[in-house]
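[#protein-structures] MJ: dropping 3'-5' exonuclease here for a structure pass
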Amino acid sequence: MYNEISSNNYATTTNTTKCVTSIIELLDREKIPKVRLNPPVYQLSTKSFADTCLKILNSKPSWHPGHVGFDTETTVYRRTCPRVVSMIQIATREICFLFQVFRITQGDAKKFPKLLQQFLDDKKILKVGVNAKHDADWLNSSYKITCKGIVNIEDIAKDRGYSARSLSELTAMFGDTGLVLKKTKKILKWNFDDSKLDPELVLYASSDAFAGIQVYENILADKMNYNYLNYEKLHPMTRIAEENEMYEILLQNYPKGKSHKQSLLIRDLESKYERWIKTKPKSLDRHKEVVKTIETFISNGRLIAVQAVQEANEKKTLESSSTNTEVDKSDKSSEKLDKSDKLTDKLTDKLDKSDKLTDKLDKSDKLTDKLDKSDKLADKLDKSNKSERLLKIPGFSLVTILASSFADKSLPSKGLSPEDCAFLKEISSYILKAIRKESLVKSYINNGKNKSIDTKNEAVIFERINELVRKNVLKLGEKQNTVLCDSRWLEELENGYDKFILENKELEGNKSSDELINETNVIVESSKFSNTETGMNLTSDQSSGDNLIVNL
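AK: finished. structure tokens for 3'-5' exonuclease:
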């Protein structure tokens, strides 16, 4: 279907502009409420307005190029008829219509505007948008109407190799210059059924529909946004600097010293490194570069390749079991063949039985083929296991360090009180990357472990967080009201722990030497008595255990 779409010729700008100008004049003459001037946005809040608008549009078939931007909105906290669609947005590049279907119907499907229903049911007019199929399904569950000609533009993007999925991402890549989608929490409070719509609500609702048609047309024309197309030139960066930023993502998301599947690291870098999402918008290109970066990290010691994953999952176990079954069948077949050989010697004159034996040989050949297939399957399993190798960041995790005896001595020396130390240990798994203070408090309260602070008093928890900020253990993040572990403090702590580990290893080495000397002492002491029994002459000085050890 996409190939047919891409071959369509869009209406020329001149013809479309003339048509839209004519439509605007007719709508204004009918006093249809215009809630935005440039580009024009009309609010259809009654059945009369909706029918009048659609009659005008039907009289001007060229008002759209065969496709329109399509989206819906729903008032979140409506008491009556919750989760019933409030508004349908329909747009071309030049004009947008906001049909307030819940205000018109009050949830009664029988009151749904017939002309609007006919428009939605027309498969020749494509309705394009991100997750448009979901909007169509929601309309069907709300009003029992069928929408045809639905196109999910994220599917087109995926078919062409682009990984962006949300409308905001696709708009940044393919939207016209100047169109920026900003999602806001105000959407939870907005009333899309109100007679007087908030200007910000109008901008929000119409922008989604405008973005849908812009993105759709620009993807088909391979017309990427200038800022995306030239991002690398506008914001140059060396490969080493890029790798440093990517390694920082790994440090924030994966504890040191713990093994992780390589596929997880690759997936996170592909989805979280925003620069490459812009400079390498095609998924395959970005994947290849991320894999290359992982190999670089392994070669320079930033990552350590651990033994490949050996445990097969349940599916592989079943496949392996199936392979063994085929082998067993083959063994049994071989036994049958041995018997058939004996019978062949005795019954060569009996052609009928010989034919049956031939059939058995054919079955044996089939079993051999199955064995060959099972060998290939085993090879695939081996390759799969090798590809799922484990990687880890060298060093020790913050959780490990804080749980050690080193932390018990080191943290107080850095000015942390016992209360600070206890609280820091309890939040250590949350602070490697920026986290909102409110989220940190909630995570602390809900982690299900014994806590050093009364969870009923959130103010005390906030104060403890602020205290760690004042003592440079935590620092404020780039985003408002976020905190994370101070990198300089963490580096100093890690260096101290590394030194502590080395010193302990040296002590263990020295201890081993002492134990060896003690063992030698025991051996010599015992040999002193045995030598006497064998007639060896020892001097009085040599009979001393201490002197004997020195002489040795």
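MJ: nice. The first helix runs from residue 2 to 6.
AK: one more thing. Confidence is low (pLDDT under 50) at residues 1-14, 308-314, 519-552.
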